[in-house]
Amino acid sequence: MNWILFLAIGAVFAIVSAQMARSRKRNVAFWAALGFFTGFLAIVILAVLGKAGSPDVSVASADNRPHSEFGKDSLLSVRDVSVVFGGIVALNGVSFDMKKGQILGLIGPNGAGKTTLFNCLSRLYQPSKGEILMEGRSILTRQPSQIAETGIGRTFQNVALFPRLSVRDNIRIGGHCRTSSDFVSDALKLPWVRREERELNDKVDEILSYLDLHNVADREVAGLPFGTQKRVELGRALAAEPKILLLDEPAGGLNHEEVYVLGDLVCRIRDERNITVLLVEHHMGLVMKIADHVVALNFGKKLAEGTPAAVQSDPDVIKAYLGSKDS
Ligand code: ATP
Description:
- It is a single chain.
- The chain has two domains: 2-53; 74-322, Rossmann fold (3-Layer(aba) Sandwich).
- Helices cover 44% and strands 19% of the residues.
- The protein has eleven helices and ten strands.
- The strands form two sheets. The protein has a six-stranded mixed β-sheet with strand order 6-7-8-3-9-10, with helices on both faces.
- Strand 4 (129-134) and strand 5 form a beta hairpin.
- The protein is elongated and about 95 Å long.
- Bound molecules: adenosine-5'-triphosphate.
């Protein structure tokens, strides 16, 4: 396919040159060959310039410098964030900080605003008010398509994979945001493209082993059990090398044994891969077991924040989950 494109561009240049040579009664074969060579050279130069000119999204732009008061050990800061849908206030001035290496549990009853906050963090929603800082820089100026490049990875509550692709290819897709090739370089299979592809393949193999997915690596995702699909989604998020991993109800639909394994895996991901984790979860047993810090929401507001034990025994949290005696 790549060589067909190369030949096609060379052929177009050759035909144009040959036509011009014929009309001026010059040596047609010589000018056709020269045209072919010029076409090749032009596409290589375009590829090199494209590579050199591609923006480095990890570098802060002048209008997005780190906020000076941002804490050194903070990774993510949610500041006074509100989201309004028509007349519904889904989030109302929510603030909290996440420290590097933390597993932060975000809990709350149905409709508390957890998913809305999650969607703000992954840039699917734009807050009506407030700020979200990642390593001191606003993420609200970023496009949703750039969010993986800023170091934020996520999984979805109901699993959002490419069902007809293999497990390996689904994970590879996650790693593409860390490659820098473009259409022309890809088409010509230039040396850095081949190097990046080799590195990406190695990374995918490592993730397949890490998540114990080697046996199903070449199977289509559609036919796999739900628990396995959830691990594939986790693999896709890991392939993007996130600094912070947002897990949206990872225990949903899993049996008791799978939840136990998941808890272990999330702790290993934090400890071995140095990834900070935000866990939105209804499974209180899991949150209380693995979270270092818990934020509880109710009706879009922050209800309580602290260690799992402190939040679990907070009277407002107990009331929100169990209801008051009066109600
Ligand atoms: P659950 O645990 O059931 O997933 P949640 O804590 O994630 O609940 P959200 O889904 O964030 O809660 O919803 C918060 C509020 O915002 C709810 O009242 C919900 O109906 C409303 N809401 C969420 N998304 C939208 C939307 N796209 N349009 C209108 N209202 C919405």
